[in-house]
Every structure is written in C-alpha cells, then in structure tokens.
Specification:
The chain is α/β, with parallel strands linked by helices. It has two domains: about 110 residues; about 260 residues, TIM Barrel. Helix content is about 45%, strand content about 15%. It has 14 helices and twelve strands. The strands form two sheets. Strands 5-6-7-8-9-10-11-12 form an eight-stranded parallel beta barrel, surrounded by five helices. The chain has a four-stranded antiparallel β-sheet with strand order 1-2-4-3, with helices on both faces. Helix 4 runs antiparallel to helix 5, helix 6 crosses helix 7 and helix 7 packs parallel to helix 8. It is elongated. About 45% of the residues are buried.
C-alpha cells in the first residue's frame, strides 16, 4: 500500500473514472476536490471501508471502486479528498486502526504539515565544455567570468558550473579532463573572490573535481548521481557543503532508452529517502532534492513530476527543478534549444506553484522577471 500526494491541477474526473467510481459519484466527488488529493495504491479492502467511514465522519471523503463495501476484490486503489484539518483528524483516527492504516496515518500527518517555500532562488547555469546541449551556456575562462558577473547583476542567487555534458546519450569524461576544463574558471572566480558575493555550485560527481571546487570557495555540490559515490558524500560532509541529490534512472548514455516506472512518485521518493539517509550518515547538513527532469523520464513522466511536485515536500527538504530549454519542450512544440525559453518559463512557474524552492536556468533575467510577476499575482502586489 502506498500513498501519493497529487497536485492541485490533477484531472480528478479522469482519475475517479480510472479507479472505477460510478458516474454520479464522479460528479459529486470531483466538485469537492479543491484541497489535498491523496491517491492510495493497493489498499486492503477492509482498510478502504474503515477509512471511507472515518473520512466522512470528519467531513472528508474517500473515492473507492464499486463493490468495495462488499469486498468484491481484496485490494483497491482509492482517492482521499481532504482539507489540512481533515487530514490531521484522520491521522489521529487511523493510529488505532488495522490493515495498514496506522502506517498510512503517518503519511497523512506529513502531508498535512507540508509547506511551500517562502522564496525561490535562481541558479544560473554556466558550462565550461563544448558539448552542452544549449550552446548559449558554453563559456571559456574569461567569458565565463564575465557571464557569471552578468548573471549576478541580473539577479541570480547561485551560479552552477559544470565541465561535462549530461545530455541523453553523452559519454563519460575522464576525471582529469573534467578538472582541466573547469579549473581555469574556478581559479578565476577564486582570484576575484566571487564566492564572497554569491553561492557557487559545482555540477560534478567526480571526487577530485568536487574537492578542487570546495577548496576554492564553492559551497554546493550538484550531483546528478545523487551521492552514489561515497567519496563525494564524504567531501560534502567534510566541507559543510550543500548537496543537491538528483534522481536519474540509468546513466546519461542510457537513461532515455525506454525509461519505465511501476510507480513514478513512489520509486523516486524511495530513492530520495535512501540517499538522504546516506547524506545524513556522512554529516551533510544541507540537502536539496532534484527530481531529475529529463534524466531517465518520458515526456509524460516529466510533466507529472512538475504537476505533482508537492508529493516530495513531504520529505522535508527544499526542491530544485531544472527544465531549462530541455528537449521535453520540443516534444510538446517542435523547437530548437534556442527557441525554448517560453516553454521553460511555463514549466518553471508551474514547478514553483507546486513547491520548487530552486530553479536551475540558462536565462536568469527572464526568470527573475517572471518570478516577480507571478509573486505579484498571488500576493496582490503591484
């Protein structure tokens, strides 16, 4: 049994029909779905009947398939529709119930306590290599420093520097070559004391590259392998660096070869739980989670992760989303990387609406403006 917190824009009618709710029930329940939507997979039918009655008793509701009340099948999927207070009440009620409901109560408690970040930070991307998928992010030493200064003037909160492409199909690069690519940029930034004015992030999973960056003022390790290498985890702990733990299915070379998940949110959530536990064992104090848009995901996977990003807030760590100019936009509207800024802004603003605290972007000025405008809409500021 597994609970998934769905985003506020979920097509509730379609989901109810998929579960097997009858036509009248779809109409009634869909009209109530303007609050927490929690999809519960593989639920014991006895638990479903108990939770249905408990939900109704607190003013919430549980959508179940036809035949649940007479236990036509042993296990069912269900959709819980509840406000925060109703979730809190259910969390207390289910602690005394059988059929796995006690464990589900913990999920309800965590879902009810989820909070969106108060501020969103913009992470500007600079690549010190010649094969990044977006040519506009590639810079050598002097030009890289000038670009970074420009990004800071435009409002970037963090600068993320990498020397290896991780686009689909890319090949790994020897650690010595990666260090040779990024060292001139790192040295130039250190000489100009840029790290005293902003937070610098190294986009790498190579221990020697990570060590060199951390020794020269960098404060964040953006690891697309999610701390797979113990040496990288140890360096983060040693230097007190923030670790960005990203999910990726496979490797950059293989990740887009028919990616598949039996439970997208569940599998990524389990990965994050495992890797955050590892991070804590290595003494890493600050952790950011990245769902890995485009890293071993289909277009449908990517869109769902942005739509249901709130699900991962339950883990208690800030979330980063990086969909900037990625090929998923080309699958929606045919376009080259140079043409994908509008799609990028749409994806990133929706990610922020659903709980993202960090955006990894190629276009700082445009994102800063879009975020300020969106915030004015929601806060009524002029």
């Amino acid at each position: 049994m597994q609970a998934e917190h769905l985003g506020r824009d979920t097509d509730v009618g379609a989901l109810l029909r998929r579960i097997g709710v009858d036509g009248g029930g779809v109409r009634i329940l869909a009209s109530k779905a303007k609050t927490h939507l929690i999809f519960i997979r593989d639920m014991h039918v006895g638990a479903a009947n108990i939770l249905k009655q408990d939900a109704l008793s607190v003013g919430a509701d549980l959508a179940v398939p036809k035949g649940t009340v007479v236990a036509e099948v042993p296990r069912v999927d269900a959709l819980l529709i509840a406000t925060r207070r109703q979730l809190q009440a259910l969390a207390r009620k289910e602690l005394a119930q059988p059929f796995g409901l006690k464990e589900l109560a913990g999920d309800f408690r965590r879902f009810s306590a989820m909070k969106h970040p108060e501020n969103v930070q913009v992470m500007g991307v600079v690549n010190a290599n010649d094969d990044s998928f977006f040519a506009g992010s590639r810079f050598k030493e002097a030009d890289a420093v000038a670009k970074i200064v420009s990004m800071l003037e435009e409002g970037a909160d963090i600068i993320d520097i990498g020397g290896v492409s991780s686009r689909p199909g890319s090949q790994p690069v020897p650690e010595a070559e990666e260090l040779a690519r990024v060292r001139p940029v790192i040295d130039a930034l250190y000489a100009q004391k840029i790290h005293e004015h902003t937070r610098l992030s190294i986009d790498s999973y190579a221990p020697e590259v990570v060590r060199y960056a951390l020794e020269h003022g960098f404060a964040i390790v953006n690891d697309i392998t999610g701390l797979q290498n113990d040496a990288v985890a140890a360096l983060c702990g040693e230097f007190g660096a923030t670790a960005v733990i990203m999910h990726m299915q496979g490797t950059p070379r293989t990740m887009q070869e028919a990616p598949h998940y039996s439970s997208l949110l569940g599998e990524i959530g389990s990965f994050f739980e495992s890797r955050t536990e590892k991070a804590e064992r290595f003494g890493i104090g600050e952790i950011v989670l990245d769902v890995g848009i485009g890293f071993g995901k289909t277009l449908a996977h990517n869109l769902r992760l942005i739509r249901d990003l709130e699900h991962f807030l339950v883990l208690g760590y800030p979330l980063l989303v990086g969909a900037s100019r990625k090929s998923m936009i080309d699958k929606i509207v045919p376009s080259t990387p140079d043409e994908r800024l509008p799609g990028t802004l749409a994806l990133h603003l929706e990610a922020v609406r659903n709980g993202a605290a960090y955006l990894r972007v190629h276009d700082v000025k445009e994102h800063v403006q879009a975020l300020k405008t969106a915030r004015a809409i929601y806060e009524g500021e002029g």
